[in-house]
Design goal:
Blueprint: H1 14-23, E1 34-37, E2 43-47, E3 57-66, E4 69-77, E5 95-101, E6 109-116, E7 123-125, E8 131-135, E9 138-147, E10 152-159, E11 167-168, E12 182-185, E13 191-195, E14 206-207, E15 210-211, E16 228-231, E17 244-245, E18 248-249, E19 267-274, E20 277-283, E21 290-295, E22 302-309, E23 320-324, E24 327-334, E25 345-351
Parallel strand pairs: 18-22
Antiparallel strand pairs: 1-2, 3-4, 4-5, 5-6, 7-9, 8-9, 9-10, 10-11, 12-13, 13-16, 14-15, 16-17, 19-20, 20-21, 21-22, 23-24, 24-25
Bound molecules: beta-L-arabinofuranose (FUB).
Length: 366
């Protein structure tokens, strides 16, 4: 994720922001476009969707349908005053709130604090993008946080309810590292965790599953760093085998190098299956695209197909994709409410496919 760049969004007048805050307290996203107004009063940006909630800042939405209801597991962005630096220290999140709604467009419920960093025994700082899964009559919340040595690991917490509260395990998942877990359930009931994020997410420090804090970002002609996958054990709290790299290939069948940064993996993996095809989707980070690649196995290789979402307002882009009642939905975030990179808001819009299974590219601003 980005570390020091500030958002390139235009300056919104304070009155307009306050109006948004008061109007969207519990309202779900509307797909009617609205315009942002700059300090001269001229309309500058038109938004495809509105924030799901505006009483807190939310980001990195992992959506799931549990018991016929949509649950969104986001990061909870907070203005802690932590100075911005090249390691993303200003993304200093301390807890999670789960959101839920009957359907897109319906009333959104914020279920309050579901997990607080102070209750995670091994955690140091920075609760980043989580995900959730249901198995064994239990809801599992997967979360990345830096341990007390400042190394990102992935933890798991459990609850009898999708909205929590969640009780964390005493230690991170053995063999886990980096950020942005995405847990995918295949048709045969197997669960897989996809994870990893470069730059502030520390993936560049992990080679052959060994940590080297001196390893920096790769150079333009070096092989792009690859996302990781591990099959989950039946207990959903451990890896069933070693962490593996996932090949992401260009349409010429060749792996990407770092200079292909408008297509190579950066962070924010999300995997789903449609019509027998695996869709591996992710953010390209410093080029701000949300893209997808497809394959025939959960382990890949995946071949790059195209852009799902063009760059949004703000530096980061992170998403999830679900099907509900015959429609497909893209949950994403931007910085409409704050204009600040680290204070984001979650949104949703419909995702459409072409007949051949390709995804129609979305622009969040007009
Ligand atoms: O929210 C913190 C980090 O920002 C996430 O882990 C990344 O995916 C990026 O969205």
């Amino acid at each position: 994720m980005n570390l020091s760049k500030s958002t390139s969004s235009s300056i919104a007048i304070a009155a307009f922001s306050l109006l948004l805050l008061s109007c969207n307290q519990t309202e779900s996203s509307k797909t009617t476009a609205t315009k942002k107004v700059d300090s001269t009063g001229s309309k500058t940006k038109e938004y495809l969707s509105q924030p799901l909630v505006s009483h807190i800042y939310t980001a990195d939405p992992s959506a799931h349908v549990f018991n016929g209801r949509i649950y969104v597991y986001p990061s909870h962005d907070t203005a802690t005053g932590t100075p911005e630096d090249d390691l993303g220290s200003h993304f200093n999140m301390m807890d999670y709130h789960i959101l839920s709604m009957d359907s897109v467009g319906g009333k959104v419920t914020d279920h309050g604090v579901a997990l607080d960093i102070k209750n995670i025994p091994w955690a140091g700082r920075q609760l980043w993008a989580p995900d959730a899964a249901f198995a064994n009559n239990t809801y599992y919340l997967y979360f990345p946080v830096k341990d007390k040595q400042d190394v990102f690991r992935i933890g798991v917490a459990t609850s009898s309810k999708p909205e929590g509260p969640f009780t964390p395990e005493a230690a991170p998942i053995k063999g886990s590292y980096s950020i942005d877990p995405c847990v995918f359930k295949d048709d045969d009931g197997s669960f897989y965790m996809y994870f990893g994020g470069i730059w502030g997410g520390q993936l560049q420090r992990w080679n052959n599953n060994s940590y080297d804090s001196t390893k920096g970002n790769r150079k333009a002609d070096e092989a792009a760093i690859l996302p990781r996958i591990a099959k989950l054990s039946a207990d959903m709290k451990s890896f069933a085998g070693p962490v593996k790299e996932i090949q992401v290939l260009g349409q010429d069948g060749k792996p990407y190098t770092e200079k292909n940064n408008d297509k190579r993996f950066f962070e924010g993996a999300w995997t789903f299956k449609k019509d027998g095809k695996y869709y591996f989707t992710y953010s390209t980070g410093d080029t701000h695209n949300l893209v997808y690649a497809t394959g025939t196995s959960p382990y890949g290789p995946f071949t790059y197909q195209g852009i799902i979402l063009n760059p949004v307002e703000g530096w980061t882009s992170h998403h999830s994709i679900i099907e509900k009642d015959g429609k497909w939905w893209l949950f994403y975030h931007d910085t409409q409410l704050s204009g600040k990179t680290h204070l984001r808001n979650v949104k949703v819009t419909e995702l459409k496919y072409n007949d051949d299974g390709s995804i129609q590219t979305i622009s969040a601003n007009k």
